[in-house]
Design goal:
Bound molecules: magnesium ion
Family: Belongs to the trehalose phosphatase family.
Keywords: Hydrolase, Stress response
Function: Removes the phosphate from trehalose 6-phosphate to produce free trehalose. Trehalose accumulation in plant may improve abiotic stress tolerance.
Order of helices and strands: HHHHHEHEHEEEHEEHEEHEHEEH
Strand order of the largest sheet: 5-4-3-2-1-10-11-12
Cofactor: a divalent metal cation
Shape: globular
Structural class: alpha/beta
Helix content: 25-40%
Number of strands: 12
Organism: Hibiscus trionum
Largest sheet: 8 strands, mixed
Length: 363
C-alpha cells in the first residue's frame, strides 16, 4: 500500500489538511485554527477506527482525481513547474537535436493522451485527425500504444495495424500485424503475456466487482483482461468510501492481486513486477535496442501509471518522458504538453521534421 500512503502524503502537501478530513467534518468556508485542525484530526482517527485504510484509499482517490481547483495552484507554482517541465512543443528543436544519430521510438498512452477523458470509458474515441497523426508517425518511427486498457479494446479505438500494442499496463504485448523482422511471437503476433496464469482469477474478480458495485450509482467495472478497472468518474464523491470498501472486500480475497490508481479509476492487477516501464524496456529489447545508445525513446502519457515509464527513461538517461497535463504534477517526465490537441501537434511536427528536415522517405 506504499503507493496509496505516498499519495496521501502528497495530497496533504498540495491541498492542505482539508484533504485529510472527510467532507462531513468540514465546516463550510471556515478558516481553521491550529486547535481546530488538531481536534478534527483527532476526531477523524478516533471515530473511524478500522476505517483508516478506506480513508487512505479515498484520500488517494481524491489526490489522483482532483475535482476542484487546488488553493495552492498559483500562477507562480505553474510558472516554476513549466520551467522544470517545459512544453515539448517549445522545446521541439532541442528534442530533435538530441535525436541526432539515434532512432526515435515512440510510446503513446491512449486515454487522456490520444483521446479526451470522457465520462463513459466505452466512448473514449480518438479523432480522425489524431488517428492520421499516429498513423503517419508509425510510418516513420516504431510506435507503441501502451495502455491500461484491454489490448483488443484499445485496438478498436485506434484501428491502426502498423503499431505495437501493449494492453493491460503492458501485460499483453502484440506486434504490428504486418511486418516485421522484430516479431518474435508466433501466436497471432503476441510477443509477451507475463501474467497469463492470472486470466481466470481476473475474470472471477471482474464478476465479483460487477456484483458488489451494482448498488453504487455511476460505478463502472471494466474487464481489461489482465487487470480490472473500476471507474468512479460518474460516482458522487459521497459514495467514494462505500465504493472503496466494496473493492477492498473483493481484493482481500485475492492476495495475489494489488490495487493501483489512475485518473478516476481504481485498478486491480496481478502482483507481478510488471508495469508500463517494464513494457517499455521489453519493447526496446524486442526492437533490438536493449543495450544500445542509438535509440531515443519518447514516451507521452497523462497518468500516474505512466510515471513508471518516465522513471525508466530517467534512470536510463535515455530519451524523454512527456507528461500531458494542464496542472502542475509530481512527475518524472522531462517535458509537458497540455492536452491531446498538443500531442497531435507534436506528432505532426515530428513527421514534418522527418519528412522535410531530414529528407526522410517513409520506409
Ligand atoms: Mg492515460
Amino acid at each position: 500500500m506504499t503507493n496509496q500512503q505516498n499519495v496521501a502524503v502528497l495530497d496533504v502537501k498540495s491541498r492542505g489538511l482539508r484533504s485529510l478530513l472527510p467532507p462531513s467534518s468540514l465546516p463550510a468556508a471556515k478558516s481553521f485554527s491550529p486547535t481546530d485542525l488538531k481536534m478534527l484530526l483527532k476526531k477523524r482517527f478516533e471515530t473511524e477506527k478500522g476505517g483508516a485504510k478506506i480513508n487512505a484509499w479515498v484520500d488517494s482517490m481524491r489526490a489522483s482525481s482532483p475535482t476542484r481547483v487546488r488553493s495552492t495552484d498559483s500562477t507562480d507554482d505553474k510558472s516554476s513547474w513549466i520551467v522544470q517541465h517545459p512544453s515539448a512543443l517549445s522545446m521541439f528543436e532541442q528534442i530533435m537535436a538530441a535525436s541526432k544519430g539515434k532512432r526515435i521510438v515512440m510510446f503513446l498512452d491512449y486515454d487522456g493522451t490520444l483521446s479526451p477523458i470522457v465520462e463513459d470509458p466505452d466512448r473514449a474515441f480518438m479523432s480522425g485527425e489524431m488517428r492520421a497523426a499516429v498513423r503517419d508517425v508509425a510510418r516513420y518511427f516504431p510506435t507503441a500504444i501502451v495502455t491500461g486498457r484491454c489490448r483488443d479494446k484499445v485496438y478498436s479505438f485506434v484501428k491502426l495495424s502498423g503499431l505495437y500494442y501493449a494492453g493491460s499496463h503492458g501485460m499483453d504485448i502484440r506486434g504490428p500485424s504486418k511486418c516485421c523482422k522484430y516479431k518474435k511471437g508466433n501466436n497471432n503476433g503476441v510477443l509477451f503475456q507475463p501474467a497469463s496464469e492470472f486470466l481466470p482469477m481476473i475474470d472471477e474478480v471482474y464478476k465479483a466487482l460487477v456484483e458488489k458495485t451494482r448498488s453504487i450509482g455511476g460505478a463502472k467495472v471494466e474487464n481489461n483482461k489482465f487487470c480490472v478497472s473500476v471507474h468512479f468518474r460518474c460516482v458522487d464523491e459521497k459514495s467514494w468510501a462505500a465504493l472503496a470498501e466494496q473493492v477492498r472486500s473483493v481484493l482481500n480475497q485475492y492476495p495475489k492481486l494489488k490495487l493501483t490508481q489512475g485518473r478516476k479509476v481504481l485498478e486491480i492487477r496481478p502482483t507481478i513486477k510488471w508495469d508500463k516501464g517494464r513494457a517499455l524496456e521489453f519493447l526496446l529489447e524486442a526492437l533490438g535496442y536493449a543495450n544500445s545508445d542509438d535509440v531515443l525513446p519518447i514516451y507521452i502519457g497523462d497518468d500516474r501509471t505512466d510515471e513508471d515509464a518516465f522513471k525508466v527513461l530517467r534512470d536510463r538517461g535515455q530519451g524523454f518522458g512527456i507528461l500531458v497535463s494542464k496542472e502542475p504534477k509530481e512527475t518524472n517526465a522531462s517535458y509537458s504538453l497540455q492536452e491531446p490537441s498538443e500531442v497531435k501537434e507534436f506528432l505532426r511536427r515530428l513527421v514534418d521534421w522527418k519528412k522535410y528536415s531530414q529528407g526522410g522517405a517513409a520506409p
